[in-house]
């Protein structure tokens, strides 16, 4: 049964001064709130290994943020900002990034009303020769309000990934209220980012350093990866009072068969780094159910966890995914999820979570509330009272399920 939740019950006072506009000089110098057995304590992020049980399994999201924001100009002088969301033609990320002359993407279009379907030229006020050499243009193939399908064309034979590196800027969150700067190219990216495709960073991972990673390994903690490409929908506010009326965006992800095999035999704590890793891991059960009932995995629907009781064990669902990959001769599961995690959700895999502090009245606050059995406000009150920094470049927390 879909729970009836009013988003205004998940509000808290967040002054602009609390929002971290820039990262700290050292990634692991941020504060770390630890929530365990209903108790809240304050630490420094580099203390994380000492707070975790040995021989645990920790899962990271190794997606990589792409400089997906491009600025164009009409002949009339009007500026049009184009924010690439996901590839359309070619539809596969790696293939789209490898394109050498043209490709089409679903995009958010700033100042969309002023674009009258003419071809746009890249805005290059400093006459950067590398940018000029691309001769990058944009044509609108399809429009849907502030979004649309845009076809990019360029010269010189560069891969589109390189085109973005030359001409694009890092799409930092809108609540920072500033333009991207040089610091963001490095710091709005995790140390372990590997697979291009996100337009927003999995920010819980921004605190990790080589020293922290070495500390985790020294404690016998196994480090594994999933890859969920974070979409711009992560910034979308919940506009309706009833959460049941809020549509979740689809995000694609990849999980290796090796990790699935680890999870099937799991008898140790599972720690997810970030809400994206939580959503990926918890989606696996419902993908397994789809295989058990229909023979193959289908994208996880937003309200699938709440629609009915499921008779299958977590082990059965995960084993179904492994068996499916064996039949297909594949080493990785590729799928998509729209899952929303709200109070009443039954967690089947994740025991502990590393995460930042999220916006009021957001779906991520709902996820946190579900994880700590409704005790989110005490956690956030502690963070506010102890001058924690909030949102993407802010401080972190280690939350343990009761």
Tally of helical runs: 12
Write the CATH fold name of the largest domain.
QueA-like
What global shape is seen? globular
The poorly predicted ranges are none
* Number of structural units classed as domains: 2
CATH level 4 superfamily of the largest domain: QueA-like
CATH architecture of the largest domain: 3-Layer(aba) Sandwich
Proportion of β residues? 15-25%
In order across it, which strands form the biggest sheet?
2-1-17-16-14-3-12-13-15
Structural class: alpha/beta
* Distance, first to last CA: 23 Å
What is the ordering of alpha helices and beta strands? EEHEEEEHEEHEEHHEHEEHEHHHEEHHE
Summarize model confidence as the mean pLDDT. 94
Number of strands: 17
Portion in helices? 25-40%
CATH class of the largest domain: Alpha Beta
Chain-wise SSE layout:
Blueprint: E1 31-36, E2 39-44, H1 48-51, E3 57-61, E4 63-65, E5 69-73, E6 79-89, H2 93-98, E7 102-110, E8 120-122, H3 129-134, E9 137-144, E10 147-153, H4 160-167, H5 182-187, E11 195-198, H6 210-218, E12 222-228, E13 251-256, H7 257-264, E14 270-273, H8 275-294, H9 304-307, H10 314-328, E15 332-337, E16 352-356, H11 363-371, H12 376-385, E17 396-400
Parallel strand pairs: 1-17, 3-12, 3-14, 4-11, 14-16
Antiparallel strand pairs: 1-2, 5-6, 5-8, 6-7, 7-10, 8-9, 9-10, 12-13, 13-15, 16-17
């Amino acid at each position: 049964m879909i729970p009836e939740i009013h988003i205004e019950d998940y509000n808290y006072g967040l002054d602009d001064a609390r929002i971290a506009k820039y990262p700290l000089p050292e990634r692991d110098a941020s504060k770390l709130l630890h929530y365990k057995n209903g108790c809240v304590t304050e630490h420094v992020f580099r203390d994380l290994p000492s707070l975790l049980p040995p021989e645990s399994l920790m899962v990271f999201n190794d997606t990589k943020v792409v400089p997906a924001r491009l600025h164009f100009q009409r002949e009339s002088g009007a500026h049009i900002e184009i924010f690439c969301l996901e590839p359309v033609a070619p539809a596969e990320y790696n293939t789209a990034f490898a394109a050498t002359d043209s490709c089409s993407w679903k995009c958010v279009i700033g100042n969309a009303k002023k674009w009258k379907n003419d071809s746009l030229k890249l805005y290059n006020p400093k006459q950067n020769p590398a940018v000029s050499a691309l001769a990058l243009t944009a044509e609108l193939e399809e429009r849907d309000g502030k979004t649309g399908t845009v076809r990019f064309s360029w010269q010189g034979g560069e891969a589109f990934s390189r085109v973005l590196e030359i001409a694009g800027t890092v799409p930092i969150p809108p609540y920072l209220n500033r333009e991207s700067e040089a610091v963001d190219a490095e710091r709005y990216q995790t140390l372990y980012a590997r697979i291009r495709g996100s337009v927003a960073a999995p920010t819980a991972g921004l605190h990790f350093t080589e020293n922290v990673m070495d500390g985790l390994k020294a404690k016998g903690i196994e480090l594994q990866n999933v890859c969920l490409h974070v979409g711009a929908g992560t910034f979308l506010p919940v506009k309706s009072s009833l959460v049941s009326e809020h549509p979740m965006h689809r995000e694609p992800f990849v999980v290796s068969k090796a990790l699935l095999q680890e999870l099937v035999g799991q008898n140790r704590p599972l720690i997810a780094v970030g809400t994206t890793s939580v959503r990926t891991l918890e989606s696996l059960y419902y993908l397994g159910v789809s295989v058990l009932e229909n023979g193959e995995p289908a994208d996880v629907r937003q309200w699938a966890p709440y629609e009915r009781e499921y008779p299958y064990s977590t082990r059965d669902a995960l084993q179904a995914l492994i068996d499916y990959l064996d039949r297909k001769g594949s080493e990785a599961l590729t799928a998509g999820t729209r899952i929303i995690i709200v109070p009443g959700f039954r967690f089947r895999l994740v025991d502990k979570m590393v995460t930042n502090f999220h916006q009021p009245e957001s779906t991520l606050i709902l996820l946190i509330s579900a994880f700590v059995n409704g005790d989110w406000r005490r956690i956030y009150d502690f963070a506010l009272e102890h001058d924690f920094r909030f949102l993407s470049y802010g401080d972190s927390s280690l939350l343990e399920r009761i």
